[in-house]
């Protein structure tokens, strides 16, 4: 499917309430506000496609950038492409989850994780996950205890850290 057609589909799938939620969560424009289920369904139709993922990301549209991560082929991503993606991401969900996930599934994960950990930009540094620090993170979470966070005008809740870390470990 050609890129202009995909972008037209994304625009047709836009949802104003989803768009408002995305903006409240710090996702920067441009964006359409496409629900995750629609992005995942579209990704299934498109299948994995390296060149398409690069083209989608290059649009600069947050929805297209997230879709790019869903159709990316981790083994084909270069270090330069991953660095570009993490630095140009319009949301923490892309820079902290999508890009590191793609990097970890490809040949450059370890190298980039160590590089990103030392990045001065918080959203990039958060992408450098180090499994060896899991137990230390749990110990720190336990010593700090429950944290209360003002999430602004959202319905989001911050989970208890130790329990959430353990829950995420079970997903592997």
From TrEMBL:
Pfam families per UniProt: DNA_alkylation
Domain of life, source organism: Bacteria
Name of the featured protein: DNA alkylation repair enzyme
């Amino acid at each position: 499917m050609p890129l202009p057609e995909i972008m037209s589909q994304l625009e047709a799938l836009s949802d104003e309430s989803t768009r408002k939620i995305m903006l409240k969560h710090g996702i920067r424009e441009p964006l359409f506000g496409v629900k995750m289920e629609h992005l995942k369904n579209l990704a299934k139709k498109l299948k994995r496609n390296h060149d398409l993922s690069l083209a989608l990301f290059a649009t600069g549209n947050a929805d297209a950038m997230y879709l790019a991560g869903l159709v990316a082929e981790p083994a084909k991503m270069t270090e330069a492409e991953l660095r570009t993606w993490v630095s140009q991401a319009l949301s923490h969900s892309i820079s902290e989850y999508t890009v590191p996930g793609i990097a970890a599934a490809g040949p450059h994960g370890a190298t980039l994780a160590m590089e990103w950990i030392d990045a001065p930009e918080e959203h990039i540094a958060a992408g450098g996950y180090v499994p060896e620090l899991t137990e230390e993170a749990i110990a720190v979470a336990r010593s700090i205890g429950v944290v209360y966070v003002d999430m602004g005008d959202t319905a989001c809740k911050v989970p208890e850290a130790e329990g959430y870390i353990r829950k995420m470990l079970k997903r592997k």
